[in-house]
């Protein structure tokens, strides 16, 4: 076998390997999901109908936050103070309820919602 034939076989083999690799990678698909975080424009959930519930024994504290999402989520968390604690929420369809502790109305300076499908 000549040197030119060996080089030709190597090139053909490399092309076949590259085509197979591309075909395998093209078969990977990522399902459409809701995702987003931050205050800039992100693709993700739309939050609406936000209600803050004051503590019945001390109305200077927030005891609960409720809101709606435009689609159901599996895991939702909120933050009410920049750099503060994160609170887990419960979901029922698109309705979200977050029990909060240790946050005063005066200290609350943000509502950051992180939700995943």
Account of the 3D structure:
By secondary structure, the protein is α+β, with helices and mostly antiparallel strands. It folds into 2 domains: 1-30; 47-116. The chain is 21% helix and 38% strand. It has one helix at residues 3-26; strands at residues 47-54, 61-69, 75-79, 86-92, 95-104, 112-116.
Topology:
Blueprint: H1 3-26, E1 47-54, E2 61-69, E3 75-79, E4 86-92, E5 95-104, E6 112-116
Helix content: 10-25%
> Kindly state the mean pLDDT as a whole number?
82
The biggest beta sheet reads: 6 strands, antiparallel
Structural class call reads: alpha+beta
Based on CA atoms alone, the radius of gyration comes out at 26 Å
Q: What is the helix/strand order?
A: HEEEEEE
Spatial gap, N to C terminus? 59 Å
From the spread of the alpha carbons, the general shape counts as: rod-shaped
Number of helices: 1
Q: How much of the polypeptide forms β-strand, as a percent range?
A: 35-45%
Q: What are the low-pLDDT stretches, counting only 5+ consecutive residues below 50?
A: none
The count of DSSP E runs of length 2 or more, i.e. the number of strands, is 6
Oligomer: single chain
Main β-sheet, spatial strand arrangement: 1-2-5-4-3-6
Number of domains: 2
């Amino acid at each position: 076998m000549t040197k030119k034939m060996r080089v030709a076989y190597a090139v053909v083999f490399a092309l076949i390997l590259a085509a197979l690799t591309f075909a395998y990678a093209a078969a990977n698909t990522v399902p459409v999901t809701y995702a987003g975080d931050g205050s800039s424009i992100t693709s993700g959930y739309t939050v609406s109908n936000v209600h803050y519930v004051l503590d019945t024994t001390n109305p200077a504290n927030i005891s609960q936050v409720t809101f709606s999402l435009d689609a159901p989520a599996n895991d939702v968390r909120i933050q009410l103070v920049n750099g503060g604690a994160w609170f887990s929420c419960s979901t029922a369809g698109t309705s979200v309820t977050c029990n909060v502790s240790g946050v005063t109305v005066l200290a609350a300076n943000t509502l950051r919602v992180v939700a995943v499908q």
